[in-house]
Write the structure tokens for this entry.
Amino acid sequence: MLITQLIFRFVVGGLVVTAFAALGDVLKPKSFAGLFGAAPSVALATVGLTIVAEGKIYAAIEARSMIVGAFAFCAYATLCSRLMIRNRMHSKYASTAALALWLICALGVWAIALR
Amino acid sequence: MKITFDLSTLAGTRWYEYGVRFLFGGAITVIAGLLAKRFGPIFGGLFLAFPAIFPASATLVEKHEREKKWKAGITNTTRGRQAAALDARGAAMGSIGLACFAWFVWKLLPVWNAGVVLLVALSLWLGVSVLVWQASKKHSRR
């Protein structure tokens, strides 16, 4: 991948993710705003670029794996919420520690079923 | 429950807080692309749903709520953490919509126009997420 492509990906990804996060900031109640924490921002930023560089089939294969990533995200966010409420853990530590669950779920399904 | 917009929260967000999200967002977009290039699209696709900016967002939600309470003279509060936990619950609901987005793109991208697929998939994400959120509100009211 060329350095200019990487820079372009970085800028587009950063802008789309920041835009969805800002939208989540202005919405109330908080549980509704949270929906935007799981917006398909990275996918929107990359699918177009992937189609241009690799084609539609390649992007569709990525989307199939993304389904697994999304369910891992659901498990991750549920654990975060529980750690903050039940275990009274600071959001910074809860949301960072729970990333291990996302990796276990996503990579586990990949190793068992997708690979 | 009524859904409202409060644009004043944008003014309360510092420039570096947007910068952090931009950096994490940009970084995961590049990393997902590089992983797909190195290990193939099946592996790289997983990272299109990686919660890259969630830790930064949750921390900011907690910080902003705590600061709001401090300004109101309440120093001993758990409101910040509760707000972050609610944000996480919302994200869990949104991730069901995210799975629907990915399913739609997987099934229809090879046969439809890419722009139309992404637009409909985005609407599907929003529609499913809002439906799940409404259902959970109705359930919790019982």
In short: Chain A touches chain B through 84 residues (CB under 8 Å). Chain A has a mean pLDDT of 92.
